[in-house]
Design goal:
disordered N terminus, TPR repeat, mainly alpha, about 65% helix, O-mannosyl-transferase_TMTC, dolichyl-phosphate-mannose--protein mannosyltransferase, transmembrane helix
Length: about 750
């Protein structure tokens, strides 16, 4: 009797698949929407997703792209491929205490392939791949949503059927055109989220294939379950969120394949009901599959932990202020407020910003703060949805709501601060995957409204309007991600209290040479965050260049006081002190910088300049030699060594250093010029001439190059050529020191020769 009862409540999986369409209501029935064949539906989704982000294809490297791509040595051919497996996303060793621990070797590998195929750092290739990836993911979403909204059913030939063609198309379109995805698609660093999402979806679809009937008539395929686990591991090697697909596969198995009633199961557990196995938990195969998923997930996490080497990354208070709050209440309130803001970005993605840290969202410190309303609204909605997902008598409704909540919440968990501190307040890129859950809930809500509405076409037009607005918003936001200037300025209206926004606008202006405007934004960044040492350092640098040395020293001194191991600020403080002729303090600042950053070629270079000013020539040469050992292409250090040896009469040594430098940097015209001067003084006129001419070819508008070549010809007795190059030099720079006097001497000599000849 027990066996018969079990069979009555738990039919064979083949029967479940073939009866699904009859036992569950069709979500498409009351929806007024486009009905397209699967192929055309996917073509439409691909085309619209391409239109949304196509205008970002020819943009620059922006924001984090510089660190992750341009400054990442793991992209270069000379770096062994094996290093990718021991470095983080930014190219630092995972074992380093300064590493962010973001382990994404497969994403870095795709960047490296981009770099090698393009033959350098050309952003077009990187950006086009991102757009193609998003289009591919959006197309896959048609299949994913057809399963999530319509259920999983196969034909007698083992082909999966789409039981919700209208709603799956709508949900896929909502996903394809969601403006919150712009950061992932138009920002090259978002490649990590795109690749993670791609393998995440392939893992889910692979898991679904495990339940396709095969020739042996087994209920499921262990092979496809294992493939799903492997694809989940690949997703995690692209970005950490990828591991969450294994949890979602387990939820899908329980709810869709085994039709588990969660509320009924909980009630039986609480009552310790002996008929617990009838609830479906112990149904044949479910526990085995979940065990496979859990074992695979645990193994992947263990390997990931072993590779990471040390503890979690060390973030600062400005990255995530709530996580540093002393009060558990303040932390909890603010974390929940962040969740509500993420939910709002999904609902109304109008206010988008590249960075939400540094005061963009002030902490909630009291229950009297009106923003508490946002928390209440979030939990009111979530509790309502959870109650419906658990308690509804409609099994179809329970399944869709639970899957929607699952896809909304589970992929977001790694970014929730619940398990470990994260290095951001809000990051639009981390809701790329959770937006799948939002699209499920939105589409299901639309189907319920359509069922009740008398004028279904008006409702359909409204949804079409939302899609159109989102397409336009995507296009606008994509254009802002094309350049740093547009991106940073777009954030000023969204996060005016964010010191980092003002800092980045200032830095962009400074890079373009607009120092006056840059100073204004740097000052505002320091005002908003009085401990913002990077803004102080950059502002101090500009003031130093403008010879406002007193204020520059104050800012840099404050920066190193706040952050004593800030090597760059120590070096810049040394430069200012050197300019103020406080040489002992400058020397001390330089050595402090080197203490905190041992491999610091620029600091050794500046230290060498200090020693040269003090006529400590041996110390200067040693400092510059250290700079070139650490950075063989350090042209300024090589040049200063050649010039110092030349000026002190060590021509043979100067020549040897010059040849060594040109061997390492063969196309540096300043080195050619310096070595040419040395060779000229050594009366090696032919070789000196060749180097001067090569330097002039590389930089034809340098007056000093023409002037010194003229001096060479003057010494050599080539007076006509000397006259020609003196004249070119004076034309380029009429005030060139010494050139006019030498030219007048030459003219007098030529006149004397003409008189003698006459």
């Amino acid at each position: 009797q027990i066996c018969n009862q079990h069979n009555a409540e738990a039919p064979n999986l083949e029967q479940v698949f073939h009866r699904m369409a009859q036992t569950e209501p069709n979500l498409d029935h009351d929806v007024s929407w486009f009905l397209l064949p699967s192929y055309w539906a996917k073509m439409v989704v691909a085309l619209i997703s391409f239109i949304c982000f196509a205008n970002s294809y020819d943009g620059d490297f922006v924001f984090d792209d510089s660190e992750a791509i341009i400054n990442n040595k793991d992209l270069r051919a000379e770096t062994p491929l094996g290093d990718l497996w021991h470095h983080d996303f930014w190219g630092s060793k995972l074992s380093s205490n300064t590493s962010h621990k973001s382990y994404r070797p497969l994403t870095v590998l795709t960047f490296r392939i981009n770099y090698l195929f393009a033959g350098g750092f050309y952003p077009v290739g990187f950006r086009v791949i991102n757009i193609i990836l998003h289009c591919t993911i959006s197309v896959l979403m048609v299949d994913v949503f057809s399963i999530l909204l319509g259920g999983l059913q196969f034909s007698s030939k083992g082909r999966r059927l789409n039981l919700a063609p209208k709603t799956s198309l709508l949900a896929a379109l909502l996903f394809a055109v969601h403006p919150v995805h712009t950061e992932c698609v138009a920002g090259i660093v978002g490649r990590a989220d795109l690749l993670c999402a791609l393998f995440f979806l392939l893992s889910f679809l692979g898991y679904c294939k495990a339940f396709r009937e095969n020739k042996e008539g087994h209920n499921f395929s262990i092979f496809w379950v294992l493939v799903s686990v492997i694809l989940g591991a690949v997703a995690m090697l692209c970005k950490e969120q990828g591991i969450t697909v294994l949890g979602l596969n387990a939820v899908f198995d329980a709810l869709v394949i085994n039709k588990l009633n969660v509320l009924e199961l909980i009630q039986k557990l609480l009552r310790k009901d002996k008929s617990l196995e009838n609830a479906g938990l112990l149904r044949k195969g479910l526990l085995f599959r979940i065990t496979l998923l859990m074992s695979g997930g645990a193994s992947i996490l263990y390997i990931r932990w072993r590779i990471m080497g040390t503890g979690p990354p060390a973030f600062t208070e400005v990255d995530n202020p709530a996580s540093f709050a002393d009060s558990l209440f303040v932390r909890a309130i603010n974390y929940n407020y962040y969740y509500s803001l993420n939910a709002w970005l999904l609902l109304c993605p109008w206010w988008l910003c590249f960075d939400w840290s540094m005061g963009c969202i002030p902490l909630i410190k009291s229950v009297s703060d009106w923003r508490i309303i946002a928390l209440a609204a979030l939990w009111f909605c979530l509790i309502g949805l959870i109650c419906q997902a658990l308690c509804s008598e409609d099994s179809h409704k329970r399944r869709i709501l639970t899957l929607g909540l699952g896809f909304l919440i589970i992929p977001f968990l790694p970014a929730s601060n619940l398990f470990f501190r994260v290095g951001f307040v809000i990051a639009e890129r981390v809701i790329y995957l959770p937006s799948i859950g939002y699209c499920i809930l939105f589409t299901y809500g639309f189907s319920l409204l359509s069922k009740q509405a008398k004028k279904k076409k008006i409702l359909a037009v409204a949804v079409l309007g939302i899609l159109l607005i989102n397409v336009m918003r995507c296009a606008l936001r994509s254009s802002q991600w094309r350049s740093e200037e547009q991106l940073f300025r777009s954030a000023l209206s969204v996060c005016p209290l964010n010191a980092k926004v003002h800092y980045n606008v200032g830095k962009n202006l400074a890079d373009k040479g607009n120092q006056t405007a840059a100073i204004k934004y740097y000052r505002e960044a320091v005002r908003l965050n009085p401990k913002y040492v990077h803004a102080m350092n950059n502002l101090g640098n500009i003031l130093k260049e403008r010879n406002e040395l007193q204020e520059a020293e104050e800012l840099l001194s404050l920066a190193v006081q706040i952050q004593p191991d800030f090597a760059a600020a120590w070096m810049n403080l040394g430069i200012v002190q050197n300019s103020l002729r406080r040489f002992e303090e400058a020397e001390q600042s330089y050595w402090t910088a080197i203490k905190h950053r041992k491999k610091y070629p620029d600091c050794y270079y500046n230290l060498g300049r200090l020693y040269a000013d003090l006529n400590r020539h041996i110390d200067a040469l040693n400092a510059w030699r250290n700079a070139t050992v650490l950075k063989p292409e350090h042209s300024l250090a090589w040049n200063n060594m050649i010039i110092l040896l030349d000026n002190t009469g060590n021509l043979a040594q100067a020549e040897a250093v010059g040849r060594e430098a040109l061997g390492l940097i063969p196309n540096d015209h300043s080195l050619m010029f310096s070595l040419a001067n040395v060779l000229g003084k050594s009366q090696k006129y032919k070789e000196s001439e060749a180097l001067f001419l090569k330097a002039i070819k590389a930089n034809p508008n340098a007056a000093s190059y023409h002037g010194n070549l003229a001096v060479l010809y003057h010494r050599w007795g080539n007076l006509d050529l000397a006259k020609k190059h003196y004249e070119v030099s004076l034309k380029l720079d009429p005030m060139a020191p010494g050139t006019k006097e030498n030219y007048n001497l030459l003219r007098r000599k030529l006149e004397q020769l003409q008189k003698k000849g006459g």
